[in-house]
Amino acid sequence: MKSPLLQSLKLILVVLWLSPTAWALDFNRYHDQDEIAAFLRTEALNNPELVHFEILGKSAQGREISIVAITKNLSRDAPAIYFNGTHHGNERASTEAVLAVIDYLVRGQNNSSIDRLLRRYRIILQPMVNPDGHALNLRTDSRGIDPNRDYATPNKPEKEAFQLVETRLVRDLMIKEKVVASAAFHSGLEAVLWPWCHTPTLSQHDPVFRTLAASVAKTMQVNRTSQSFYDYQTDGEYIDFAYMRHGTYALTFEVAQEATPMPNHLDAVVRRAVRGSMSFLKAVDEVLSTPQARFPAIVGDGQASL
Length: 306
Ligand SMILES: [Zn+2]
What we know:
With 306 residues, the protein is α/β, with parallel strands linked by helices. 40% of the residues lie in helices and 18% in strands.
């Protein structure tokens, strides 16, 4: 029989591991793009072996679009796990969530669980897919196009997709990196969603998606998990693209009921997002370590079988 004391101790240790303590950033307010750019550069400068800063390109209005790759694995072929925020510019909590994950991984780089993940994977983090929307507080880009409907997906052909430079940069990043798993942060709902978005048909990897989503939802204390279609139907979403084209285990993390929660709620929101992200990383690692459930099979012309 398990001792209740031991059980409680174990729970406390898990909670401690999952509770970020000291932040480099103050999450009682939202950060502007100059502060975000400075943060990414400072983390790279202060941790040159660990944090690799890269400018992917510029938005339609000329704003910087950048990532950091955090890893202790020097191989360019190391599998990547990719987090992005603010497809929707008014969902500013999603950018702060990505910043918090960066902050947490860097501060915890010597924690044994994080160290293990960093030795295996390149963890790529993009705070803003859509910096123009972020600056203008718009869901869409500056011309009114929704970036998260602009990807090639099973019922949105390539020639109708990638109208936006912002989504083309994501597309090109995914070609360059071997992205085995990915989470797109959004806000305006509390839920964990997975492909398909465009059809009620279950994907070939539905059991894996359910396992990953359940572990994230548990640590984020979110009740709602579902195939994205059952949230609502869409064509051209990032997660359908990433799964279809690259066989990536791509999920949507909806991290807050409001798109832009009050600043005094932000710290709690990003802590949940960090807990969810850490459990996602661990769950992905477990899935990929299981021989029968490795990287999804890609068939034919690079499309995961439907
Ligand atoms: Zn969104």
